Amino acid sequence: MDNHQFRAGVKAALPIVLGYIPVGMAFGVLARQAGLTPIEVGLMSFFVYAGASQFLAIEMILKGMAWVPIVIATFFINLRHLLMSSTLSLYFNRNRIRTLGLLSGELTDESFAVAMSNTSKIENRPAYLFGLQITSHVAWVMGSVAGALFGGLIDHQSYGIPFALPALFICLLLLQIKKIHHLLIMVIAGVSSLFFKWALPGNWYIVLTALLASGIGMFLNSKVQSSKLKSPLTPPSPLGGERKVASTRNRGEGSRGTESMRKQ
Fold first, then answer.
1. Residues 148 and 29 in one domain
2. Under a CB-based contact definition with an 8 Å cutoff, are residues 85 and 112 in contact?
3. Cα separation of the two ends of the chain
4. What percent of the chain has pLDDT over 70?
5. Cα separation values, 199 from 85, 187, 202, 205, Å
6. Which of 120, 138, 188 lies closest to 21, judged by CA?
7. Residues 139 and 56 placed together within one structural domain of the fold
């Protein structure tokens, strides 16, 4: 493993760590209210490692539901990881399947967003991505255990801890806005999510907004790429033109000199 790339990935995980620790503490507090011990909280964060699914599971445990619907619900929530991991696999075509499996198992929404913000850093560099992911994972486990142990001493509602995860996503979103059409897609996604939330019951607005925004993003990106391909070639510089004329002139003079020598 490349230690330099691994350390670079650890540094890149700092924004995620700052968000994961308070959100993990909030999860630890709720998990303790559901009857889980600090050890069980830590094991759940280590093996499951899926924030939204863990919060949903705790809510279902509080309602006294059996483990089968909890597993099914978390499975469908995490299906988005199939799309994210398949996207990342395109940048690791020189690596083994077991390496891809490890990186896919450590993948989260936040680490995916940071990785895709600059794909030049991750292309065939698994050490960088693993450093990013494992640092985030450790922060999530530490935050969860800290919340389970000491969460009763903190009024997490008063300190705005539940808003830590949305704030983290806002920061990661801003890091990915590099062109005007990125901003346009962000606005479309925000407006459409509010509309679908108002028009449809449940959480269908998340799926529909993701499909709509990604489809528009692919369309706009293809338009941008095609416009670059159709752009006219850069005309030759005057200096280059002068050099070509001079070389042609020299070749002409050389051929005339050779012809005169033959006549002599």
1. yes
2. no
3. 75
4. 77
5. 31, 18, 10, 9
6. 138
7. yes
Which structural domain range is residue 31 located in?
3-176
Residue that terminates a domain, selected from 111, 143, 176: 176
Contact 26, 147 (CB under 8 A): yes
Together in a domain, 195 and 137: no
- The first and second tokens of residue 176, run together, are 């990915």
Return the SS3 of 117.
helix
Quick one: DSSP state of residue 95? Answer: S
Place of tokens 């964060």: 45
Coil vs helix vs strand at 148: helix
Of 181, 188, 239, which is closest to residue 212 (Cα–Cα)? 188
Fill in the amino acid letter for 2. D
Token code pair at residue 13: 């995980």
Residues 170, 85 share a domain = yes
**176, 192, 212 — which closes off a domain?**
176
On whether both 155 and 199 belong to a single domain, the answer is no
**Are 32 and 129 contained in the same domain?**
yes
Tokens coding 4: 């330099």
Distance CA 54, CA 48 (A): 7
**Model confidence pLDDT, tens digit, residues 81-136:** 888 888 888 899 888 888 888 998 899 988 998 898 888 899 889 999 999 999 99
pLDDT band at 163 (very low <50, low <70, confident <90, very high): low
Residue type, 213: A
Count other C-beta atoms under 10 Å from residue 80's C-beta. Answer: 15
